[in-house]
Prior knowledge:
By secondary structure, the protein is α/β, with parallel strands linked by helices. The protein contains 1 helix and 12 strands; from the N terminus they run αββββββββββββ.
Amino acid sequence: xxxSNQSSGRAAFWVTIPVVVVVVVxxxxxxxxxxxxxxxxxxxxxxxxxxxxxxxxxGNDVQPATTTVNQPAPGTGMAQAITVKxxxxxxxxxxxxxxxxxKVTVTFINENGLHDWVLEGYDNVRTAKLQGGxxxxxxxxxxxxxxFTYYCSVxxxxxxxxxxxxxxx
Length: 169
């Protein structure tokens, strides 16, 4: 191989590397974005259910995040699915609104540490204490109107801000 062929080969190599890196990063970004925009449905296909609207904090600002569950007519027995993520020391969302009489299914996803999800004012509506990366789903009927605190019962986590509010209208 002469010198000019070696130079051409090296130039092609150094041009190819950035192109490959850009393609790999682009594919990873697209896959991650698709996963983030497709919420998990632990109860199967519920395409006929009303939408759940959420707003979440931007950046590191501490802002309330609210989930409003649009309800079917009372007595239909349909469960409304809500996902609550928890970590060091937060719940997201930290406010949930539902209509009285609705069957509510909460999936608590513990992102890190040891945490649980306990709903004050409702008997036995709580998850087990879960290690980071674990989740648990529970279902209850929101049969009492008012504001109810949900919180982490581990150590001082509640006092450290790991709490939220369920508003039953």
